[in-house]
Amino acid sequence: MTLYDPHRINYPVKRTNPEKGVGVDPKWQRISWEEAMDTIVSKLKAVYEKDPRGLYWQATTVQTSEIRFAVPAFMKAFGFKNYWVSGGGLWCGNGAHFMNGIMHAAWSVIPDWNYNNYTIYFGCSKGHGAGHAALQTAQFVADARARGMKAVVFDPFLSTQASKAHEWVPCIVGTDGAAALGMINVILNELNTWDAEYLKLKTNAAYLIQPDGHYKRDTKTNKPLIWDTVDNKPKTFDDETIKDFALLGEFQVDDTKCVPSFQLFKEHVKKEYPLEKVSQITSVPVSTLRRVATEFVQHAQIGSTIVIDGKKLPLRPSAAIFFRGSQGHVNSGWTCLSIDLLNHIIGAADVPGGAFGHGPPVSMGYPDTGKPNTVPYPCPDGLMVVKGWVYDHKPYPLSEPKPPTRLDLHDMFPCSVYNAFTICSPDWEKYRKQFGIDYEPSIMINFGSNSVMTMANAQQVTENFLKKFKFIFSFNIIHNEFTEAVADIVLPDTCFLERYTPAVTFPSTFCHPTGMDHWVWQIRQPVVKPLYERRDFNEVMLEITKRLGIQNKYYESINNLIPIRYGGEMEEKNKLNPKGDYTWYEICDRLIKDRFGDGKGLEEVKKTGFIKWKAKVEETYWRWFVPVRVPIYFEYFIDAGKKLRKVTTDFGRPDLFDMSFFEPLAQWNPCPSHTNKNPEFDLWGFSWRPSFHTQSSTQCNPWLDEISVNDPFVYLIQINEETGKKKGLKDGDIIWVENPLGRKIKGPVKLVQGMHPQHLGIAGCHGHWAKGQPVSKGKGQFFDDLIIVDEAHTDSLTLGSDACVKLKIYKCNE
Amino acid sequence: MAINLKSNMIKYGIVIDLKRCYGCYSCTAACKAANNTPMGVDFAKCISGETGIYPAAQRQMLPTLCMQCEDPECKRVCPTGATLQNENGIVTVDKNICMGCGYCMMACPYGQRHKVSGWQTYFPQAKEELDAYQSYAKGKWEEKYGYGIASKCDFCMQRVKDGRLPACVESCPAKARTFGDINNPESDVSILIKRDRGFQLNPEFGTNPSVYYLPAR
Fold it and tell me: Where are the alpha helices (DSSP H) in A316-413?
């Protein structure tokens, strides 16, 4: 369907209507590749010579395997820093990726379905057609379910995974972090249970904290101190003579009274997250929170061990996981951390049965070459640092808050993955001027993204952000709301059946979801030559760099990024020669040869489509094999917050964001939707994803559209049946759904039982209107139009966007 | 899975584990790709629904396909003898004999019979009449079934003869479907049915289906 879709873009086209905007007909005109490339290169050349900084890469997370080379390599070669994956703020994981990196050295976290017996899901569908390596994990979780693994799902609605779980716990959207902290309180202060050995040796729980919140450090080595309860004196955390670590108590070191960070954490959750308060926030009964916390601990079997491949390891068959639903809120970062701390207090991190870093944290490589290789290592304070990472700064140590250089101010913020509040705001220009950005947006290169539909209100994103670019060229396979609103030239890209991809998954080993099975490195190869005048994005970018005369820098950039993104230095003979001239096929071949050896180039790997090798227990269950700790107390946030505040104050914004988010102990903060007490707006709105749709890109597939039409939930606005009846609604009534800013959408309502009474759910990214997508046009509703992106709806810590909103509904009488 | 078709003892069956199924519709889409069914025709239809009262509500998917009944109503009512049953229990339609009376559609208690009046494109707004893929699919459909006559799932018999699994079985990411010989007590399907409380859908219809379900909980 994708390959032969008659609505595919088969030739380059240019916009002939000078007007841009949502719903505008671009009046496409077919042009030759020569004309397209001449125009693009001349525009790029002019900018390159004048000021290359104003370029902006916008890419899609749907095809992350395709953007590993061209995007970062072109940015370095051309000399600009502006980049985002559109929808990154909303649809991807600001809080999740940041926290997973700190706590698991990974992009994602999943339960170890091989041994897990009890998982608490917070707003995520991992293993149910969602998340990374979705199809592999579906099989793992089905196996676990079949052997009796229990799942408890916190979610405002009966989602895919909630419908497969043993228990659905309806909660108010965006309150997952509070629920997690309440349950931690139960575990630490009512059940008085924790994995002391794990906390002492694998976290900073024993580090002594001074009254000012900082570590008490050794005056000679500057290393954090702990209290040895046997020798009854302070020692540096890595002192080999330590006999036992104090986790609780108060200790005098020099003239300072210090307490272990675990003591502070335990007291903090007791004081701030008593169950009655948490129950009010989440709407989950106290008894349910207490029972789930108790079951979670009971299933963890703290103290139990298992022998795998001759290695004795802790067995902790309990896990708590999260993703989009719980992290897409103002408390994004802390919610992810709070949920993950459930795993760490019971020692269930990257051990059999527990929560797994997925992405992967530890790879010792293919036996012949030792690549891809990535093993985290400790910083001087003993905390874990990831070796390779997928974006420009690592999750830890934090990047230094500094005057921004990017158009979205991204590099000013120490914990941001992507940010939307600046560029999607009517005040974007004001932000740029206020924070000293002395250049203008010039050209946008778009790879497959549909930011008009995936970044909140379409009008706002288009008018305030996309229309500020003087020229936009875009690689697409099908026209969408973005191309029609703002693209000047659209190039016909190849689809997955027409191109080579040297590493399909992202990062390269998501194909190894969990357990002691094999590592698999997959490639993708064309089954047909590109049809019509379609050309592979990677080939086109190579030609653009050649025409610009920067291919030497482009090759060097590829040489430099492969070690970071694909685990390990390249051999000299496999590096691209800056004076050379390469096809995309040759570049793929060199990468694969370099990772797997001379006899395993692209020609060889094409025969099977993948390379696999056996996983080691030290890779899969790596936590106790790697000498690193993770924080339960974020001491380094204190200084990061102060430094960030200084930078924002220097630019005249001492009020930009709430620096109390940079305190060192886990916290929950409400979204604006939680503090909106206007009784008219009595429903919380959120979006959800059907397991068979991928962001905004699959609704135009007529098979999936047909399935969506036949499904009783996908194209309808779901509300609780009782709630609907009280409002005089019945199935099929057309209703208006309006947000506090007066923006509204309409559609048929579906009264259901699987919905919290105070909520309204709509499948995300539906309601397309592009002329180029007649199959999806007008089907379902465009929920994102209701979302508000501004400072108040942004996580002060990670800049994640808040995806929930208070709504009112009423019958549409038109 | 290679299955010895020469043995007339084989009775093909499919076991669908509702515990494993999470409702992704892969079977529906894979069946469309394998059988080239036109718009509106699903040999592997999934029925999604909700039961119970909040907060004890449940949602469950029921994947369906032709039950390949041992005593099929569709065969009983067929006035022309177009409905056949092979030695492995698979119910098929001889397109050259079927006259399209539609009795089988009314008789099948599981709603697994279809009649297509003409090819319906998935892309009605496209400029060209049919794209390359749909031209291919239309040709394949007409070769095997055609219009105005009965059509149905045959457990992908051609794929099975070629040593492959039915498309709905092969494509299931959760491995919720198992295909095999329900006459052989040692087969995976027989073991699953016996061990995991396998049941037939609406056994009261009395047709003895070859499709079994394993309970969701």
Answer: 324-327, 332-345
- The verdict on residue A477 lying in a domain is yes
Residue with tokens 């022309």: B80
In a shared domain, residues A71 and A115: no
B29 to chain A: nearest residue by CA? Answer: A703
State whether ipTM is beyond 0.90: yes
Per-residue pLDDT tens digits for A472-511? 999 999 999 999 999 999 999 999 999 999 988 765 556 6
Residue B88 to residue B7: CA distance in whole angstroms: 9
Residue range of the domain that includes A422: 23-80+398-618
Domain boundaries, chain B: 12-214
Q: Where are the alpha helices (DSSP H) in A124-174?
A: 134-146, 160-164
d(CA A278, CA A293): 13
Output phi, psi for B175, to 5 deg: 50, 45
Separation of alpha carbons A142 and A131, rounded Å: 15
A170 close contact with B: CB closer than 8 A = yes
Q: What six digits make up the tokens of B203?
A: 């056994």
The neighbouring-strand residues paired with A313 are: A306
CB atoms within 10 A of CB A684: 23
Q: DSSP letter at A573?
A: G
Chain B interface residues (partner A, CB cutoff 8 A) = 17, 19-20, 22-26, 28-29, 32, 39-40, 42, 45-46, 48-50, 52-55, 57-60, 122-123, 125-128, 131-134, 173-176
Q: Per the structure block, which two tokens stand in for A25?
A: 């007909």
Residue closest to A699 by CA, chosen among A586, B30, A690 = A690
Longest CA–CA span in chain B (Å) reads 55
Predicted local distance difference test score (pLDDT) of residue B92: 97
Closest residue to A139, CB basis, from B58, B60, B174? B174
CB-based burial of residue A672 (10 Å sphere; 0-12 exposed, 13-18 middle, 19+ buried)? middle
Tokens at A635, concatenated? 């001491």
How many whole angstroms separate alpha carbon A351 and alpha carbon A307? 11
Which CATH code for domain B12-214?
3.30.70.20
Write the residue in A3, A134, A141 that is nearest to B133 by C-beta: A3
Question: Which of A:773-802 have CB within 8 Å of B?
Answer: 774-775
Q: Which segments of chain B does DSSP mark as H helices, in order?
A: 26-35, 73-77, 103-107, 132-144, 157-161, 167-171, 188-195
CB within 8 Å: A703 and B173: no
- CA distances for A615 relative to A113, A144, A365, angstroms: 16, 20, 9
Q: Average pLDDT of each block of 10 consecutive residues along chain B (217 residues)?
A: 53 97 97 96 96 96 97 97 96 96 97 96 88 94 96 97 97 97 96 97 97 95
CB atoms within 10 A of CB A249: 12
Averaged pLDDT for residues A332-346: 98
Residue B199, number of CB atoms within 10 A of its CB: 12
pTM score: 0.96
Instruction: Specify the pLDDT at position B191.
Output: 98
- Map tokens 């949920």 to a residue: A339
Are A58 and A140 part of one and the same domain? no
> Residue B57: which of A5, A710, A754 has the nearest Cβ?
A754
Which tokens in the block code for residue B32?
Answer: 């469309």
Amino acid at position A8, single letter: R
Six token digits for residue A36 = 């397209």
What is the Cα–Cα distance from A705 to A700, expressed in whole angstroms? 7
Count the domains in chain A. Answer: 3
For A185-202, write each residue's pLDDT tens digit. 999 999 999 999 999 999
The answer to whether B18 and B27 have CB atoms below 8 angstroms apart is: no
Asked if residue A8 is part of any domain, the answer here is no
DSSP string, A162-212: HHHSSEEEE--TT-HHHHHHHHHHIIIIIS----HHHHHHHBSTTSEE-TT
In a domain, A610, yes or no: yes
Mean per-residue pLDDT of chain A: 94
